[in-house]
Amino acid sequence: MFQNLRANSQIYILHKDAKPYVEVAIITGVTPPKPKYPVGIPQVGQLPHLEMVVDLTAQVGGRTDTYQALPAGAEIADFGQNGNMVISCSREAMNSEISAMKQRSLEIINSVQYHQGVIAGCDEMLNALNPEYAEKQRQDKEISDLKRQMAELMEMNRQMMQQLNVPETPSPESRTNKKVE
């Protein structure tokens, strides 16, 4: 638990970026547990619910960072503005978090074929319900095909000119800039 950490204890910091990585940090300071929210005066017969938090200071990668408001009784916690960082005082808990992250990514990759089918089905339904959508798709495909064919023809023309040892035809801009002798 974060509240049990002392100076020189290790914590693990998982950065959930496009290429995730883990850093190991050494604790340099831990605050005593304190309530997360200010405590009001409880009503008679009602016990206040106190969520306790601690602040950690740690040396990581040559810098000192402070991690505030970590749940005192937890071994692992999300941190950062978007939960893009996970901090743990337990290697086992960090291993579980990394395994879960890997499993989620594998599930997404394995569902690609399903979602491609959904997209194809939606396109078919949109084409059936909206003739103008179908016409636009047909035109987009035709333009794409024409661009591809034009690129192939230009490449074949370039290769033929090379085989015939004919210099490349100058562009229209360079012809207009030439002086007539």
UniProtKB/TrEMBL annotation:
Region (Disordered): 162-181
Superkingdom, natural source: Bacteria
Composition bias type Polar residues, residue spans: 162-174
UniProt-recorded name of the protein: Uncharacterized protein
Organism expressing this protein natively: Candidatus Cryptobacteroides faecipullorum
